[in-house]
Design goal:
The complex is a heterotrimer.
Chain A (H helix, E strand, L loop, with lengths): L4 E8 L12 E8 L4 E5 L6 H8 L7 E6 L2 E2 L5 H5 L2 E4 L11 H7 L13 H13 L15 H14 L4 E5 L7 H18 L2 E5 L3 H7 L2 E6 L2 E6 L1 H4 L2 H8 L3 E5 L6 E5 L5
Parallel strand pairs in A: 3-8, 3-9, 6-7, 7-8
Antiparallel strand pairs in A: 1-2, 1-4, 4-5, 9-10, 11-12
Helix pairs in contact in A: 3-5, 4-5
Chain B lengths: L2 H25 L7 H8 L8 H35 L11 H14 L9 H23 L7 H25 L2 H11 L8 H20 L1 H7 L3 H6 L4 H22 L6 H13 L3 H25 L8 H19 L7
Chain C lengths: L1 H11 L7 E4 L5 E4 L6 E3 L2 H9 L6 E3 L24 H6 L4 E5 L5 H9 L4 E4 L4 H15 L2 H22 L6 E5 L13 H8 L3 E2 L13 H6 L4 E6 L5 H9 L5 H4 L3 E5 H5 L4 H13 L11
Helix pairs in contact in C: 5-6, 6-12
The chains are: A alpha/beta, B mainly alpha, C alpha/beta.
Chain lengths: 267, 339, 295
């Protein structure tokens, strides 16, 4: 099976005028398999956000190639990319005025960018997506009236309305309380197993990444430190070198997956 | 209600209101013409070249057409620009283009830069020239490595606008005392009967601007997700920004060139519509065309009749009547202000 | 005589409805269907002149500013000078509209011509122009005799003033058209000429073209011996007087020669310009014009 997505020797530097200078990503190569949950972890400024932008064709690599099912992204139109890769951001911008249904329908844009209004088929697909994430009852609510967890599910529904092959999530649990974190994790697992959706999960939360992901990519200063199964990547020595603080890697009492805990100083 | 049906109903209602307002405007004016006489003119039964016919067909009708067109153009430009900059305070004059156009006209008036009296089109050319210079300046100042960031666009627009406004002030300070009144009168914004030929050009330019903005309405909605979010959905953000900017600039330049600078319409009408119809630009842009026209027409009809035969400046009416109405709207409805 | 000429023209020029072609004061050719019997005046000075030459019956419309003589206020109004109502003018069915390039807007002329209403433009800048205007208005309205008579009377009065002040020393005069910003008469301004004719030496005579903005410092530095403040009926007078009275070192203030003059006499291009001239002469040379008292 060919890789769903691939970075081949990718390098990227932001233009010096905009505060860039060094390379935000240097010589990065990895693959994401079909139906895989792939995690991207690393400290701040390690290049995680830039990676998402390169993957979703917001940025073009200065060197190397980003490939989607074997095709270089640069050869595809933005709309075409959007029918195959859906990005789930942390939230919508402050003051976003649309309702749930209006937002989910936006996910249908890449399929017919020339159309003025969405079609009946679009509405049906949006309805399905809302059902999948359990927000159908909220369809006419404006987004700013919803809780963080509900908003997260709505944004996910929009991404699903894009009917992508690959879902890219940017810190999906960052602002969620425990309950919604658990819900989110469960939902992602279901989507992956039942719908065969490939997932790239960028997260600060190392334990969550370990729990959900089949493989992990540990980034530091724009370069890959390690790629592999969570057990292989999440080694105390490696993590301490990358994050600069002492950690303890243990096993989750229920799932037996690795968990990472900080050794708090001055105990 | 789907946006398409919402748009349909809104347009139907607005079209009726527009027709009613236009008809009412035809019946009132400084010249004492009875409603029956007006109807006679409209049905072709009045005396040819008689006073009634001249007043109704050569004075009131062109002025009504100018008001509808100018109001619609300003409202559409305002709606597009507010959505583009995601800023509820944006209005056409923030583009800097209206100040540039005004400067062109004031320059021509101050230096008497025209050959003959019947050179109405010459003044228009100066307005477009000024608008072009301002628009290009804003575009160049705001552009960054192949892109047009929204915050620099706003900033550049404001700066260019301030520059040209100051330039106008300088011109005013050196203008002949005789000419001063006329220049200031023009700057206040006043509608006058635009001759048919000029009206045609006005409509054509406004149509191009409207088409550009309307064509990007769906993309404008997606821009509310932020530029990165829109890009990730397949929106060509740079093309959207360029087209909206050019479209709005054309609309504003046309209004200033043919009618003069009129404020407030471009700010208020899109907001009022957004509060009643929601933020979907596919609904807002077409309805703004009609609603803006109706608003300006109503204001202008008041302006030319309240203290007849003297005329008030239409900008005064739009501000005095628009502000209380807007405050009422704000306080009585769930506010979805952000465009 | 006029009718005969018109008849000849009608016979000689087939197909044209133009029986009368005039040249207005700016040199434009104005084509009328015949001697005008319905005239709209957009200029207060012209309104005054029409009344003064007895042509008021032909006057069918005036502006809100046409307040002299009192009967002028009874004529139908068409609005202000800047934005007269086109509808009101059309409804009055005028044969000609008399307007000025300094006070009315070009837009108005353009619109009137588009509606096939002839516009006769005036732009007097000197006293001679004002007298010429009176003659023209007489010709346009068929009141040449009355106009000629009026011109003769006015010329005589002007001559009387200039002769009286010819041998007198010329005090330095500052004329304040508008206090803030300070606007004064300079080269080519009618008031400048009036000041000279009244035997004064205007300190701002070379300060620019027409009625420019002037710096208060420069005005004060010329140490005027007489200061005349134009009043525009707005009640601003008291405040303006106070402002100038503070310059206690000025010769004019020391000598108590700070006067107010009715702007309508000096800024309207009509027969009362000579009233204005006489007023200025009394203010500048009270010793030569006794018995009339200070205004």
């Amino acid at each position: 099976m060919s890789a769903l997505a691939e970075f081949r020797g990718v390098g990227f530097a932001y233009p010096a005028r905009e505060g860039g200078g060094g390379f935000a990503i240097r010589d990065l190569s990895f693959t994401v398999g079909q139906e895989e949950i792939f995690g991207v972890i690393g400290p701040n400024a390690s290049g995680k956000t830039t990676l998402i932008r390169l993957l979703s064709r917001v940025l073009a690599p200065s060197r190397g190639d980003v490939l989607l099912e074997g095709e270089p992204l640069g050869r595809l139109t933005r709309a075409a990319v959007a029918t195959r890769i859906a990005v789930v951001p942390q939230d919508v911008p402050q003051g976003f005025p649309y309702t749930v249904e209006e937002l989910v329908l936006m996910g249908r844009f890449p399929y017919a960018p020339g159309r003025f209004f969405e079609s009946e088929a679009d509405r049906a697909i949006a309805g399905e997506a809302m059902g999948l994430t359990g927000v159908s009852a909220l369809r006419h609510e404006p987004l700013d009236r919803l809780s963080g967890g509900e908003r997260q599910r709505v944004i996910l529904a929009r991404a699903l309305a894009q009917k992508p092959r690959l879902l890219v999530l940017d810190e999906p649990t960052a602002h969620l309380d425990l309950r919604y974190q658990a819900e989110c994790a469960g939902l992602l697992r279901r989507l992956n197993r039942e719908a065969g959706l490939g997932i790239v999960l960028v997260s600060h939360d190392l334990s969550l990444a370990a729990e959900l992901c089949d493989r992990l990519l540990l980034l530091a200063a724009g370069a890959a430190v390690k790629v592999g199964a969570p057990e292989a990547v999440l080694e105390e020595a490696t993590l301490e070198a990358v994050y600069g603080c002492r950690v303890v890697v243990d096993k989750h009492p229920v799932s037996r997956r690795p968990t990472v805990q900080v050794v708090w100083p001055n105990a | 209600m789907s946006p398409a049906s919402r748009l349909g109903s809104a347009l139907a209602v607005l079209a009726l209101v527009a027709a009613a307002t236009a008809l009412a405007a035809l019946f009132v004016g400084s010249a004492p013409i009875s409603p029956r006489a007006v109807v006679a003119v409209l049905t072709g039964r009045a005396q040819a070249q008689g006073v009634d016919e001249v007043v109704v067909l050569s004075l009131r009708l062109p002025r009504i057409a100018a008001a509808l067109l100018a109001g619609g153009a300003l409202a559409v430009a305002g709606a597009g620009f507010q959505a583009l900059t995601r800023n509820p305070l944006a209005e056409p004059s923030v583009l800097g283009v209206s100040s540039g156009a005004a400067f062109g006209v004031v320059l021509a008036q101050v230096f008497g830069l025209r050959a003959g009296l019947l050179d109405a089109l010459g003044l228009t050319a100066f307005a477009f020239g000024g608008a072009l210079v301002a628009g290009v300046a804003v575009y160049l100042i705001a552009s960054r490595a192949g892109g047009l960031p929204v915050h620099t666009l706003l900033l550049a627009g404001v700066i260019v606008g301030i520059f040209f406004s100051s330039a106008i002030t300088v011109l005013i300070s050196i203008v002949d005392f005789d000419r001063l009144g006329g220049v200031i009168h023009w700057l206040l914004g006043n509608l006058s009967p635009v001759p048919a030929g000029a009206l045609g050009v006005f409509a054509a330019v406004a149509a191009v601007g409207f088409w550009l903005v309307l064509g990007q309405s769906r993309q404008l909605n997606l821009l509310a997700l932020g530029e990165e979010g829109a890009l990730q959905l397949g929106v060509n953000a740079e093309r959207v920004k360029r087209r909206i900017f050019i479209g709005a600039a054309l609309l504003v330049a046309a209004v200033v060139a043919f009618v003069g600078p009129i404020g407030f319409v471009g700010l208020i009408v899109p907001h009022a519509l957004r509060m009643t119809l929601g933020p979907d630009n596919r609904v807002l842009v077409p309805t703004a065309l009609l609603a803006g026209g109706v608003f300006l027409l109503a204001a202008d009809t008041l302006a030319r009749n309240l203290v007849a035969p003297a005329e008030l400046s239409v900008g005064v009416i739009t501000a005095f009547c628009g502000a209380p109405f807007f405050i009422y709207l704000m306080r009585s409805r769930a506010v979805r202000l952000a465009p | 005589m006029r009718a005969a000429a018109a008849l000849v023209l009608l016979l000689v020029l087939p197909g044209t409805a133009v029986a009368l072609t005039l040249t207005d004061q700016t040199g434009r050719r104005v084509s009328l269907a015949g001697p005008p019997t319905r005239v709209i005046s957009l200029v207060p000075g012209v309104t005054e002149t029409l009344f003064a030459i007895g042509a008021q019956d032909a006057l069918v419309g005036v502006t809100e500013f046409c307040d002299y003589p009192a009967q002028a206020r009874l004529k139908p109004r068409v609005g202000g000078m800047l934005a007269p109502s086109l509808e009101a003018m059309v409804a009055l069915k005028p044969d000609v509209v008399i307007a000025t390039t300094s006070g009315n807007r070009e837009e108005t002329f353009t619109q009137l011509e588009r509606l096939k209403i002839p516009v006769y433009l005036v732009n007097p800048a000197t006293v001679a122009d004002v007298l010429d205007l009176i003659a023209r208005l007489g010709a346009v309205t068929g009141r040449e005799q009355a106009a000629g008579h009026l011109i003769a009377t006015l010329s005589a009065r002007i001559k009387a003033v200039t002769e009286r002040v010819a041998s007198l020393p010329r005090p330095r005069v500052l004329y304040v058209l508008w206090p803030e910003p300070l606007i004064v008469p300079a080269r080519g301004a009618l008031v400048s000429e009036l000041l000279a004719l009244a035997g004064g030496d205007s300190v701002t005579a070379d300060g620019g073209e027409s009625y420019p903005r002037y710096s208060v410092e420069a005005a004060v530095a010329r140490a005027p011996q007489v200061i005349v403040l134009a009043s525009h009926g707005s009640g601003q007078g008291a405040m303006t007087r106070e402002k100038w009275e503070r310059f206690t070192s000025l010769p004019a203030i020391k000598a108590g020669r700070l006067y107010t003059a009715d702007g309508n006499l000096l800024h309207r291009y009509g027969p009362r310009v000579v009233d204005g001239l006489e007023l200025l002469a009394r203010l500048i040379h009270p010793e030569a014009f006794p018995g009339k008292g200070h205004p």
